[in-house]
Amino acid sequence: MATKQTRALARTMMAPAVVVLFIWMIVPLVMTLWFSFQNYNLINPMMTGFAGWANYTYVIGDPSFTQALVNTLILVGGVLLITIVGGTFLALLLDQPIWGQGILRIIVISPFFVMPPVAALIWKNGFMHPGYGMLGHLWKFFGLQPVDWFNQYPLFSVIVIVAWQWLPFATLILLTALQSLSEEQREAAEMDGANAVNRFRYIILPHMARAITIVILIQTIFLLGIFAEIRVTTGGGPGYASTNIAFLVFRTGILSNDIGAGSAGGVVAVIIANVVAIFLMRAVGKNLDA
Amino acid sequence: MTAKTLFAGALLLALTGTASAQTLTIATVNNGDMIRMQGLSDQFTEETGIELNWVVLEENTLRQNVTTDIATNGGQYDIMTIGTYEAPIWAKQGWLKPLDTLSADANYDVDDILPAIRGGLSLDGKLYAAPFYGESSFIMYRTDLMEKAGLTMPDAPTWEFIGEAARAMTDRANDINGICLRGKAGWGENMAFLTAMSNSFGARWFDENWQPQFNTPQWKETLDTYLSLMADAGPAGASSNGFNENLTLFQQGKCGMWIDATVAASFVTNPNDSTVADKVGFAQAPDTGLGKRGNWLWAWSLAIPASSQNAEAAEQFIGWATSKDYLATVAEAEGWANVPPGTRTSLYENPEYQAAAPFAAMTLASIDSADPTAPTVDPVPYTGVQFVAIPEFAGIGTNVGQLFSAALAGQMSADDALAQAQEATTRDMTRAGYIK
Fold first, then answer.
1. CB burial class (10 A; 0-12, 13-18, 19+) of residue B166?
2. Cross-chain Cβ contact A239/B405 below 8 Å
């Protein structure tokens, strides 16, 4: 049992780590806020001084800002749709008693271990490139013109890659939920004459609702900031077709060396992320109370 | 003597040992010529005792890395590999040390450096970066396909001829594209090509009052010519092709013509890498008869950031890596065709080089014909052939590059791309204070 002394000791020993973590989080945030109100261009030392709201009006007035915002939402929505529908389907399959189940499960979750830039590179050159990619060869085999995925369907291509990466996560969480469903309940429904569709709709799906909520919440937070996959494959283009808010911030801050405007974009992104998070907590987070 | 004093003595010795051996940290790009230099640099260390610590990066990463380092006075590097875009801008900011000792060294012979290249790396007559290799751009073409099409490539063709030849050479059934051109977005990718091309159509980025010019008929003609050429005779997925992608396509025999950097000549004529090595001809970049050709000028160069604590040793290394002796060293090890090209007059006068490199004369003619101080038909307030030498250009150029890449991918029309380019550039130039 913890005595007063051990508790005090624990606190003292943990304090440095807590302080470091806090500074780690707060310092970049405060600096971003500070820079967002400064004229600061990396390679133009003439730009200095207080900028007022100029950086914000510049970023929000960017012709590609609205598109980036829409792209961000499509990206998040698209990936969520694929991973939840696909994840549920895979979880149902993996829940069946089949031979080699353990190995199969490991194979299914393995994409999660691949780093995003690596995954994106493999998809870009190995699969989707019209000249070298496997899909290109497949199309040619059937006498068709290879599809230039990243130029014809840039946002869709990015969604596919990101969904491939997040599908294992969704599957894993949903499978765990599925396994916690009591066998008796299923059998009872079966004996009452409920068919597979009805069993899924009235028993399995409601049971998985909480897990789905968790998947939506966690994935949304990560998906709002998708960057590596875009950087490696489309570079935000063609045009602004696959530019999301995170990539727009990168383009403004790093590619254009405009740290002031980039920081303003970063602050805007944080605000948007929070708005989305609050909205989600209200809309789907209710499931968590039960 | 106790063990303690022995240990202290050894430690002291070790410390003074490391302090006396000077180490230079060099940031460079992962291009073939630089990798070779890295391999040969042991010689420099043997001669001088100066150790070298290499940071080798891919082009875009290198740019971001060194720009951030020098702008924030990070002081990570003693030598940076930079281009003709950065050199004059950074020199003006006082971020680079002038190479005065080297310029005064008769043995180094600064006057031997090609005037166009030297001019691009100087500010107010002072050299701020030494060229490691220099390049212009020209046409590389398949002599066999040209013959099959019943055409003869002139030394200095027009865009009209290039269009005709490209369409005649195209044989989609056999995977042969008449022409391969850059389409990947980026100021150093598609915009390097398109800006140089636009010069030959009489277009320019800005007029003398820094007003963007994308709403002019000259830009419209440039973009229309480029798009229709690529639609009729370009490879699939061209909007993701940069230098390296096109190089691979050409080496695999999938391009009838390719207009790009002159340094590519040694790669496409090297039988180890290229399936068409013995069938490549060279010609100057096309024009439209307005007095400017569509070729650029670039030099990957070595410079010393003002923050370097080892400036003297750094200048010594730059002297070694960009000297005539270094060229001779590479020639001895790898043959004359593989020496870094485009920097020294003496190289182009060397009969051994002329014999080994069939592209030498055309390279020199292309470099000499590019003038960064008067790149366009009409006067402009900026220098730079395939870029505009202002700090904001990296961002603006990449932005416009995205729009033109989208037009190539068929995501938007040429008119929309030009209108949006005009709007975005006007916005950025107003923000930067060029337009009141």
1. buried
2. yes
With CB atoms and an 8 Å threshold, state whether A239 touches B398. no
- The domains of chain A, with CATH numbers, are 56-288 (1.10.3720.10)
The burial class, CB within 10 Å (0-12 / 13-18 / 19+), for B75 is middle
Q: State residue B19's pLDDT score.
A: 46
For B80-239, where are the alpha helices, taking DSSP H only? 86-93, 100-104, 115-120, 143-148, 159-169, 190-200, 217-233
From the list B185, B392, B398, which residue is nearest A44 (CB)?
Answer: B392
Instruction: For residue A130, list chain B residues with Cβ-Cβ distance below 8 A.
Output: 236-237
- pTM of this prediction? 0.85
**Across A209-226, average pLDDT:** 91
Distance to chain B for A16, nearest Cα, Å: 28
pLDDT digits 0-9 by tens, B346-399: 999 999 999 999 899 999 999 998 988 889 999 999 989 999 999 889 889 999
Chain A residue set in contact with B, beta carbons under 8 Å: 41-45, 47, 58, 61, 63, 129-131, 145-146, 148, 150-152, 235-241, 251-252, 254-258
Do A256 and B392 make contact, defined as CB atoms within 8 angstroms? Answer: yes
Nearest to B89 among A41, A43, A58 (CB): A43
ipTM above 0.85, yes or no: no
How confident is the model at residue B9, as a pLDDT? 52
Please give, rounded to a whole number of angstroms, the shortest distance from the CA of B417 to a CA of chain A.
9
Write out the DSSP string of chain A. Answer: ---HHHHHHHHHHHHHHHHHHHHHHHHHHHHHHHHTTB--BTTBTT--SB-TTHHHHHHHT-TTHHHHHHHHHHHHHHHHHHHHHHHHHHHHHHTS--TTHHHHHHHHHGGGGS-HHHHHHIIIIIII-TTTSHHHHHHHHTT-PPP-HHHHSHHHHHHHHHHHHHHHHHHHHHHHHHHTS-HHHHHHHHHTT--HHHHIIIIIHHHHHHHHHHHHHHHHHHHTT--HHHHHHTTT-STTTT--HHHHHHIIIIIS-BHHHHHHHHHHHHHHHHHHHHHHHHHTGGGGT-
Higher pLDDT, B134 or B14: B134
User: Do the beta carbons of residue B411 and residue B405 sit within 8 Å?
Assistant: no
Q: What is the largest CA-CA distance in chain A?
A: 79
Report yes or no: B340 and B132 within 8 Å, Cβ to Cβ.
Answer: yes
What does the pLDDT read at residue B8? 55
Whether residue A128 is predicted with pLDDT greater than 70 in this model: the reply is yes
Task: Name the percent of chain B in helix, strand, coil, to the closest 5.
Answer: 50, 15, 35
Pick from A31, A132, A256, A259 the residue to mutate for testing the B interface (most B CBs within 10 Å). A256
- Which residues from A are below 8 Å from B231, CB to CB? none
Q: Give residue-wise pLDDT tens across range B217-264.
A: 999 999 999 999 999 999 988 988 889 889 999 999 999 999 999 999
Structure-block tokens of residue B201: 């159509």
